Structures
1.
Amino acid sequence: MDDMDGLGRSRRRFVGGTLGTLGVSALARPARAAGPTPPATEGPFYPAPAMRGADVDNDLVRVLGAVREAGGEVFVLRGRVLDGSGAPLAGRRIEIWQCDTNGKYLHAGDRQAIAFDAAFQGFGHDVTGPDGGYAFRTIKPVTYPGRAPHIHVKLFDGEREVLTTQFYIEGHPANGRDRIFRRLSRKEAQAVSMSFAATDAGEEAVVDVVV
């Protein structure tokens, strides 16, 4: 697994600290699963370690050494990782990856004739805290050919992969045309849907992961 550099750890503390100061009423509605979070396909563009940049922290909007932030609508994705009884799971590595604001993935297999946004990490990770909490600063996902906007998610317990899933934008018109989203029951879709709310720190969505 990738280690966090000093700057990455600093940014994680900033994101976590900012979220910690907000009252529950100010946060987006959590997407809570009645049961385990539904799994989903990994897809063809999971970036192997060799494809990732040196900066793989939980702030995907600013790349170490870049002079500008990534294009797109920035928001904070946060939530908790819980077991089936609702107990928090600390020390779990959670990864996300998604296409940039142009619809391009950080992956050699994405052969679209468009440039990848060099200011966007495309991939990042966090490690859950004592309360099972995680947080990412990223951009709202956009449509990709044939797919509704989505964010890919992986969860690990040590070296063991526990879950691969995808998060969607609640109520997005493309959801009904997405072949993967359509396989979900209504409860499953609610469990992996992001609802955005304004906070003092900007827009935010809360999705809990249950395994």
2.
Amino acid sequence: MSAGTPTDDDVPIPTDCPDVDGMPMLGLGTWKLTDPEATPQTVADALDMGYRHIDTARSYDNEHLVGRGIEQSTVDREDVFLATKIWKSDLSFEDAIEAANDAVDALRVDSIDLLYVHWPAEAYDPQDTFQAFDELVDEGITDRIGVANFEPEQLAEAVDYADHDIFANQFECHPMLQQTAIREACEAHGVEPVAYSPLARGEVFGREVISDIAGDHNVSEAQVSLAWLRERGITAIPKASTTEHLHDNWLSLSLQLNDGELEELDAMTENARQVTPDFGPWNR
């Protein structure tokens, strides 16, 4: 099956999603979802379908739309795991405090479930930044703190500087970019791995190994990638802007890959990174 191909109508729609310490392992990513009408509807549709994990960021310029979508849905706020991120220019102590409070206002919520350092770059200083993030936890602005795009050395440093536990590290991950070293670092520090771009921005479609497994199960390649991540203990937050794609991604929760299929996917050796900003820490 290719991108956008409807899944088998006979497949039961999952009614539950596994979670790690209260964070659902399948969420909705909202990067580039900025249409003032479509974005709130997408968020509301996702929540009404069963999603309970919504991920956004200050830099996406859509927190106000995500908040409206949460309000439009039939799901109570306390049942939604809501995450956002503070951009690299706002990571000094005072700026981080202000940005987090602005995020809460934009999202129209009382607090955030998980607040990330979006990139370890520009204004990021581990001592200053995590002093602010620790204070934000103490003040009840966020329940948990996380980091994004941190390499193993930076993750270890963050764990040392933060008084509160680093709950998650969000980074690009999919079968063509398996990030073994970062995953091992997360496990060593008790940090949950969260995969953005889990479909490699569409590059999972047409890859022979993934396509063959998808064909054997009569599912999409997207479902195979998401199921592989889940089986490997990685939370995924794929972006979706249509009900069809929301539904297809959600159906990945019903897909169980066997040991041989998991090993085939594990053996993929590509290094197909899709997110490549100049300030990425892997460039240093």
